[in-house]
Design goal:
Strand content: 15-25%
Largest sheet: 8 strands, mixed
Strand order of the largest sheet: 3-6-2-1-9-11-12-10
Number of strands: 20
Shape: globular
Number of helices: 12
Distance between the termini: 38 Å
Helix content: 25-40%
CATH class of the domain at 3-174: Alpha Beta
Bound molecules: aspartic acid, magnesium ion
Oligomer: single chain
Length: about 400
């Protein structure tokens, strides 16, 4: 018998009818001969509403009381799902986070799971019952209810799957898997059967927000096979797995883009030790995350030009910070440009293949698209280009790497 953890997100349990639908998916897994534990989110919109109440009540709520309020959405869903299961003669019972317990640290509102007591869930399984567990919540060291931060139910599910040594953790959501590119832009994008944890992490941080990043990290650490699939369609989803589970690894698995970028160019910056620290230190203090960075010699040969990217919403603030340090550090012009997009090709296969970056550069050159900044990691190449060419670049690259569906 395989152990499967099924997780259903907010839209999957969005109303009573949908919760009934979830119950049939649980039953089907049992009918397949598997042992099942279920993790659920709050009904769609519920957590937002609860957060809204706390804001109305207080500008700075005690985080422990905030957690008491916002954790309640999931408690509603565990009870309702158990009732739906009873309606179709599936034995089931609910457990809250503190009852299991799901132990967390005491960083309330953004707590991390430390360990999960599996005794009760295993006993339920042995007795042929389905344990239904709330995502997002646990109990902290000090015995108080804690929540994991928004979107935390994915992490709850993967953590439970790890603790149970489950064969698979199925994350049911409103998309049917992970695609080679955004199908709204590249119509020939196709669903991936499998993807590695590392690639998924790169995809997630690139805006393909299918799974919470922490859940993927946890899956990678504990080798939990995660499947992302739709609760509204009956098709297999995408499996997120270790690299050795992928037999025919493509060189590039996916292409992502992020419009949440702005470029800042500092021209004629003094060229001596301590300058980069003097510029990026104050930006970090202002909590501005700098992503791509390039430095090169200015046309006068004596100073340097420094180009980097920040989240678009932080651009104006970044410029303000830079204006302030101008007194201490010689900077020529400060030029900011929000009209850029970052396009990335991702694939673990590029570790062992030459020419992957070159294909990207050549493809963009053939389309007359100018590359403004480049950055690379072991499994990713990113370029910054003008936002006007987003669609053209994505489609051209998707074809160039052989990802187009037939
Ligand atoms: N209900 C929580 C939220 O909306 C946790 C989750 O759904 O993952 O953030
Ligand atoms: Mg969610």
């Amino acid at each position: 018998m395989a152990i499967i953890v099924q997780k259903f997100g907010g839209t999957s349990v969005g109303d009573i009818e949908r919760i009934r639908n979830v119950a049939t998916k649980v039953k089907r897994e049992l009918d397949n001969g598997n042992q099942v534990a279920v993790v659920v989110s709050a009904m769609a919109g519920m957590t937002d509403q609860l957060v809204g109440y706390t804001r109305e009540m207080s500008n700075r709520p005690d985080p422990r009381e905030y957690d008491v309020v916002v954790s309640t959405g999931e408690q509603i869903t565990i009870g309702l799902l158990c009732m739906a299961l009873h309606n179709i003669d599936v034995p089931a019972r609910s457990w809250t986070g503190w009852q299991l317990p799901v132990r967390t640290d005491d960083a309330h509102a953004k707590a991390r799971i430390q360990d999960i007591g599996t005794e009760k869930v295993l006993a339920d399984m042995a007795a042929g019952r389905v344990a239904v567990v709330p995502g997002f919540q646990g109990v902290s060291d000090d015995g108080r209810i804690a929540t994991l931060g928004r979107g935390g139910s994915d992490t709850s599910a993967v953590a439970l799957a790890a603790a149970l040594h489950a064969d698979r953790c199925d994350i049911y959501t409103d998309v049917d898997g992970v695609y080679t590119c955004d199908p709204r832009i590249v119509t020939r994008a196709h669903k991936l059967d499998r993807i590695t944890y590392e690639e998924m992490l790169e995809m997630a941080s690139q805006g393909a927000k299918v799974l919470q990043t922490r859940a993927v990290e946890m899956g990678m650490k504990h080798h939990v096979r995660i499947q992302v699939l739709s609760s509204f369609e009956d098709t297999p989803g995408t499996l997120v797995v270790d690299e050795d589970e992928i037999v025919e690894q493509e060189i590039v698995s996916g292409i992502t883009y992020s419009r949440d970028e702005a470029k800042i160019v500092l021209s004629h910056v003094a060229d001596r030790p301590g300058i980069a620290a003097g510029i990026f230190g104050p930006l970090a203090e202002a909590n501005i995350i700098v992503d791509m960075i390039v430095q090169n010699v200015s046309e006068d040969g004596a100073t340097t030009d420094l180009t980097f990217t920040v989240p678009r919403g932080d651009m104006d603030r970044a410029v303000e910070v830079l204006e302030q340090i101008r007194g201490d550090i010689e900077i020529g012009d400060i030029i900011s440009d929000p009209g850029v997009v970052k396009v990335s090709v991702i694939g673990v296969g590029m570790r062992s293949h030459a020419g992957v970056a070159q294909r990207m550069f050549q493809t963009l050159a053939d389309k007359g698209i100018n590359i403004q900044v480049i950055s690379t990691s072991e499994i990713k190449i990113s370029v910054l280009i003008s936002e006007d060419y987003t669609e053209l670049a994505l489609r051209a690259l998707h074809s160039a790497y052989g990802l187009d569906a037939e």
